[in-house]
Amino acid sequence: MKVNEIYDRDYAIIDVRSPGEYQQGSIPGAVNVPLFDDEERAVIGTLYKKAGRKQAKMKGIEVVSGKLRDIYEKIGAEEEKGREIVVFCSRGGMRSGSLVQLLSSLGHRVYQLEGGYKEYRRHVLDNLDVLLKSKEVVVIHGNTGTGKTQLLRMLRVRGLPAVDLEDMANSRGSIFGTVGLGQARYQKAFEALLFERLRSINRDFFIVESESPRVGRIYLPILLVDGMKTGIHILVECSLQERIKRIVDEYISIQKDDVLEEIRDSINRLKGELGKKKVDALLALLEAKNYNEIVRILLEEHYDPKYNHSEKKYDYDLRLESDDLEECARAIEEFIRSRFCM
Q1: What pLDDT is stored for residue 184 in this prediction?
Q2: pTM for the complete prediction?
Q3: Catalytic site residue 89?
Q4: With the CA atoms of 90, 94, 96 and 100 taken in that order, what torsion angle do they form, in degrees rounded to the nearest 10?
């Protein structure tokens, strides 16, 4: 099966690469059923280089043979959902090919993805720029805590083509970006999610919140960065009190020791900017659980000066207050539907 055919119906897509390969990037929605774990893959790769293909194959058979029942059950569970199976590995080679042959011999209707993940990756890169060139970008600007991310989610519920770049990157794009979120996504995984989201949009525009060219560990595509500069710009403003409340609710409501430790580490990384004295004061406030004061200081002395400097260069097509997010979302929807004659 060719890459462009995986969209023809609701296939169950099985990624048989190692967990490490899968984490770096996969086809969105694919289920990881690895033939080898990361360590086993490294051993077999080393054996291939030192002893040759035959010895590596024998080792691979030895490793997989003990896992076949578990692999078969996992793939069978996907098949029981009424979907046909598509299997892929790195290049559409031995790992996926061997499993497809086995499953086919047992009477299952299963397809191998030609070229594997490498071919899917090429498909993404070839078509992502095409999609970006074909659509205008609507950018929602605003200081930290003005509710930009919430507005994106509300607009998407209202049927508008909102694209949450921070969710795709699994990072909020700041020094506190991954607090409570776990590991940030890798570049390949991000680009696949962005491609699939844009591919699903049948409008000639999409909506994002203002971002720097880098979100966490992710670098945004150049065409997206350029589109954000030349697009339609909406500014949302909000009272300091409401911004503080939203940020405290988002971060501190996650009552876990590891989250507070992440916040502590993030504050420590501000020593170069705010100085040791200010950082020590923030850490003391954290210990005292005075979260509102921490957020107020960070907004006034860290976030707002940076944001105000970068956002002065835009002429805004619409300015709104976002203390009432529902009313703000309604006004943005009305503006966009009028602008694009929806």
Answers
A1: 82
A2: 0.89
A3: yes
A4: 160
